[in-house]
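Hey there, shall we discuss this one?
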Amino acid sequence: MHKDVLVIGAGISGISAGYHLKKSCPKKSFSILEGRESIGGTWDLFKYPGIRSDSDMHTLGFRFKPWIHDKSIADGPSIMEYLHETIDEYKLRENILLNHRVASANWNSEKSLWELMIQANNEMLEMTCSFLYLCGGYYSYAKPHMPYFKNQENFKGKVIHPQFWDESLDYKNKKIAVIGSGATAVTIVPAIAEKAEHVVMVQRSPTYVVSGPSEDSINKFLRKILPIKATYFLIRWKNILYQSFTFFMARKYPERTKNKILDLAKNEIGSEDVNNHFTPSYKPWDQRICLVPDSDLFNAINAKKVSVVTDTIKEFRSDGILLDSGKKVDADIIITATGIELNSLNDINVTIDNSKVNPNERLTYKGMMLSGVPNFAISFGYVNASWTLRADLTCEYVCRLINLMDKKGVACCEPIEDETAHGDDQLIDFTSGYFQRGLNQMPKQGNKAPWKNYQNYLKDIFAVRLFSINDNNLNFYNSKK
């Protein structure tokens, strides 16, 4: 089977790709291949209590599909409902092939085609496409980060990773230890604290935590006097500009920003807890800042349902965790919110004429393509704003590129390797553990445009929507025979 475009992944990025292809490239045939049995990506994979967005839905939502609920910070089921609505509204279900996991993709230079091997319902299928667009996210669904703790097997209770949550788990009136301090930990801790006897968040190092309202009062007001689309547009841009401003201020005035965040936290839970457990050693936005809606984590701490311990783990005991300080955390259940494993090419073995493509040996072009790889794009969202903002832009760019190739009458397009752009810069200037662990497999960014990944929506939006994409860093040609 051949398609003009194959999109890998039916999560937020893949659904956006389907919409944009139907809108901007209506004559192109395409399929969205999803390796799992349902759509939704992250929002269908994670089932742990409290699963929610960690950014507002007016920017995590699609530009073309207004988010109309009161909650700006939405739970997982509400996000899944929104994604299903989008698929049905734009008739994308007919383009989605579930249980189609791509094992390999080889670019055949003579035929100017991608040749894919796909595992579908226990059999291998072959498909070809003219353009391959990876929208399967940036981390492994099958393999989270699960470090081994000394004597872990001695613990008599249940050990569970949030990525493989057991929905039948009964944690009512149980003592629970949650290992971690990132977005998953600060989400799951207050959620399970509602039923648990007590929850201890065991963290190796603190994270910046900021409280924000789960409902946007301006959004609720504007919806009473303006049409839905107008309200969505205004709130979306309010939030985009606010995110951009706060990130700029954090990078320009890190100490001032740090003090502001800490002062806000001290107003919630007092100086002692903030000084001991919520004062990171790094600057704001060197790692992603954790959002807690309606102060849920802080409220749980104040209610004595949750406590935080900042220490390193020496070993597991039969009834809890022994820390290097000598303190012991009693637990019936241990939740290892220890993070994810980065994944550069959606777990696909990508080759060119059967020669393996190693992403860490290539430059990323506009954060969307790889140098020397024809008819190929990757959706990789922002780390300092909502993922969807960049996913939507990347979809728009891919559609413009495909149409430009048709206009030029060529079959192939690839970014030309620029030796003068090489540097030592990693793809993302971020110190989070999961990024640092996996950066060796990610593509590099260059030291100048268009090889530099600016992580700036306002800059990217002009480049994608207003400026010509026909530049001398791209090579347009017909097949290499």
